[in-house]
Amino acid sequence: MSKTHIQFKLNGSEVETLVEPRELLIHVIREQLGQTGSHIGCETSHCGACTVDLNGESLKSCTILAVQANGAEVATVEGLAASGELHAVQEAFMQEHGLQCGFCTPGMLMRSYRFLQENPNPTEEDICQGMSGNLCRCTGYQNIVKAIQVAAVKLQAK
Ligand code: FES
Ligand code: FES
């Protein structure tokens, strides 16, 4: 099958690669571009483990073809601490034990990162609604919600 050249910004750096028209963005990010932080939990758009930021919106990267990201700005969990310091959502998940096995965590962090820009002062209900596309098999969600509340306070203090 002939391949298509695509180019986009990944965590602030221009990347380019050749992809098959049927290839999903999550596979290209992980397998061709070596950014394996984003996980594949279901490939059916349910779990949110593959959540990235695309042009300023949360996106489940198993729901989009890589060719559709041509020219876009994409951020993954690897980009959150790009300045060398943990992002407030990372600090808060660590402090509040917002994870157990960690499989869902990259997607949780990327969705939290965007959610707190959409709603910097969320209620608990807002958080549950805003994070409803991200599933966790381990934590029971309480510490995740608490971590996002703590991250909101940290971000407002900055
Ligand atoms: Fe994309 Fe589950 S792997 S939503
Ligand atoms: Fe294990 Fe969420 S911490 S799936």
Question: Helices and strands in order, then pairings?
Answer:
Elements (H helix, E strand, L loop, with lengths): L3 E7 L2 E7 L5 H8 L18 E4 L2 E4 L12 E3 L12 H8 L9 H14 L5 H7 L11 H16 L1
Parallel strand pairs: 1-5
Antiparallel strand pairs: 1-2, 3-4, 3-5
Helix pairs in contact: 2-5
Question: Which features characterize this protein?
Answer:
158 residues, alpha+beta, Ubiquitin-like (UB roll), DNA polymerase, domain 1, 2 domains, 5 helices, 5 strands, binds FE2/S2 (inorganic) cluster
What does this structure look like?
- By secondary structure, this protein is an alpha+beta fold.
- The chain has 2 domains: 4-79, Ubiquitin-like (UB roll), CATH 3.10.20.30; 88-157, DNA polymerase, domain 1, CATH 1.10.150.
- The chain has helices at 25-32, 88-95, 105-118, 124-130, 142-157, and strands at 4-10, 13-19, 51-54, 57-60, 73-75.
- It has a 5-stranded mixed sheet, sandwiched between helices.
- Strand 1 and strand 2 (13-19) form a beta hairpin.
- The mean pLDDT is 97.
- The chain binds FE2/S2 (inorganic) cluster (FES) (2 copies).
